[in-house]
Amino acid sequence: QVQLAESGGGLVQAGGSLRLSCAASGRTLASYTKAWFRQAPGKEREFVASINWSGGSIRYADSVKGRFTISRDNAENTVYLQMNSLKPEDTAVYYCAAGYAIPTRADYWGQGTQVTVSS
Question: Is the bond leading into 103 cis (omega within 30 degrees of zero)?
Answer without folding.
Answer: yes
